[in-house]
Amino acid sequence: MKRNQYHVVPNGGGWKVEQGSQVVGTFDTKQLAVEAGRRAAHGNEPSQLVVHTSDGKIETEYTYQNDPYPPAG
To answer: What Pfam families does its record include (predicted)?
Structure first.
């Protein structure tokens, strides 16, 4: 089963949560965006939340339910 992926990314002076090309929400602070991203990811498991730094690099990832890695065998 494919996981839903959400990304917390910088958005001008604020932050946004994206799922693919769809914007889930925009926020004034990174903390608010991460909290919203976690709620969205938990509501659509299996999922993954990828949090980016202000320069766009991946800071951390959270996986919810049935992480297929490492693969069996």
So the answer is: DUF2188
Nearby residues of 4 by Cβ (< 8 Å), 6 or more positions away? 19, 41, 44, 45, 46, 47, 48
Domain spans of the chain, in order of start: 4-64
The rounded distance, in Å, linking the Cα atoms of 52 and 7 is 7
Return the pLDDT at 59: 98
Token pair for 64: 């919810």
Mind listing the pLDDT tens digit for each residue in 19-57?
A: 999 999 999 999 999 999 999 999 999 999 999 999 999
- The helix (run of H) or strand (run of E) holding residue 40 is helix 30-43
